[in-house]
Amino acid sequence: MGDDERMDGSLNEFQAGRLRVTCHYIDGLLSEIEQILAAEQSGAAFPRYSVDIGPSQRRMIEDYIARVREQLVRALEGQGLAREKPSIPASRAVHVTLGAIDIAAEELRPRYMRGYGEVPQGAGAKLNDIAGELQSLVRRLDSSLTDRAGENTDARTPQFDDSGEG
C-alpha cells in the first residue's frame, strides 16, 4: 500500500507541507485585506486605495477574516501540524526597511539624478536638501530604535515641530 492510501487517514510529509504553506499563504492574503482596510487611517502620503467600505462592512469583513484564521488553525491542528513561530524580530524588519528608505532618499541626490538628464544647479541644491532631510529623519528613527530596543515606546514618542525636527 502506497503513501496515497494511508490507513490512518493522515497526510504524508509533502501533503502536510503543502497544507501548512497554503494556510500560511492564505493568512498573508488576509493580512493584505487588513492593510487595505487600514489604508484610510494610515496617513500614507500616497494612498493606493480609495475607501468605499463602510463601518458595518468593515466589521463584517474583519469578523470573517477572524473566522477564516480560526479555520486555518483548526485545519493545521486537525492534522497534528504546528504553526510556525515568528522568527524575525520586528525591530530587525523595521531596521532593514529604514535602510531601504535611506538608499531611496540617497538616490534623489543630483549625482544619481543625472542619469535622467542634466540637473540644474538650483534644483540640485533642492534635491540635496530633500535627500538630507529624509535621511536625517530616517537615521534618527533607526538610531532611536537601535538604542532603545525592547523598551516601551509610548512614553518617549517624539514631538515634532513643523520643520520635522524632534
Low-pLDDT residue intervals, each spanning 5 or more residues: none
State which percent range the strand residues make up.
under 5%
Helix content: 55-70%
Biggest sheet: strands, sense, closure? none
Find the count of extended strands (DSSP E, 2+ residues): 0
Radius of gyration over all CA atoms, rounded: 24 Å
Give me a quick take on this structure:
The chain is mainly alpha-helical. Helices cover 61% and strands 0% of the residues. The chain is elongated and about 75 Å long.
Main attributes of the structure:
166 residues; mainly alpha; 61% helix
Describe, in plain words, how this protein is organized in 3D.
With 166 residues, this protein is mostly helical. The chain folds into 2 domains: 3-78, no CATH class; 90-150. Helix content is 61%, strand content 0%. The protein contains 6 helices and no strands. It has helices at 13-37, 39-42, 55-78, 90-106, 110-113, 121-147. Helix 4 packs antiparallel against helix 6 (121-147).
Strand-helix topology:
Blueprint: H1 13-37, H2 39-42, H3 55-78, H4 90-106, H5 110-113, H6 121-147
Helix pairs in contact: 1-3, 4-6
